[in-house]
Amino acid sequence: xxxxxxxxxxxxxxxxxxxxxxxxxxxxxxxxxxxxxxxxxxxxxxxxxxxxxxxxxxxxxxxxxxxxxxxxxxxxxxxxxxxxxxxxxxxxxxxxxxxxxxxxxxxxxxxxxxxxxxxxxxxxxxxxxxxxxxxxxxxxxxxxxxxxxxxxxxxxxxxxxxxxxxxxxxxxxxxxxxxxxxxxxxxx
Length: 188
Hints:
Layout: H1 12-24, E1 28-34, E2 40-46, E3 56-61, H2 65-72, E4 75-81, E5 88-98, H3 101-107, H4 112-116, E6 132-147, H5 151-164, E7 171-177, H6 178-183
Antiparallel strand pairs: 1-2, 1-4, 3-6, 4-5, 5-6, 6-7
């Protein structure tokens, strides 16, 4: 049985809508960075609510190792997986760190305090905490699998494939490249 080719016949707008719908349905991403020795490190990150003009973004602390890594090697991959639907997303891009205080005030979420802790004074986990940095990821390309199969049927297909030795297809695999990100809807 031959593998179904990438289902890229969908419009760029449709692919971007599907991509962000999948991302918004998965709270935690795995951010992969390149260490100084070339090895790869992945760490869980909470994807923040979409902002116009930014493909993906995360909050971090200035005092983490990943900030040094990102300054040295800004190339990243952000991966998502939904265990219930078996849908997944992989986004490759370039990360930029920003400590823009006005922007941090605009996008600040109260739950960030739990990740930073309250050390007293200005290091209280609030929007003026000098440790807060934003990681903005400019997507260069993305590949994702959008399920076109209800969960119950998908489980049946998996069981059937195990019994018959046939390969299953649970959804459409699509690719989004840099020009599609650039020409996509206004609120990327």
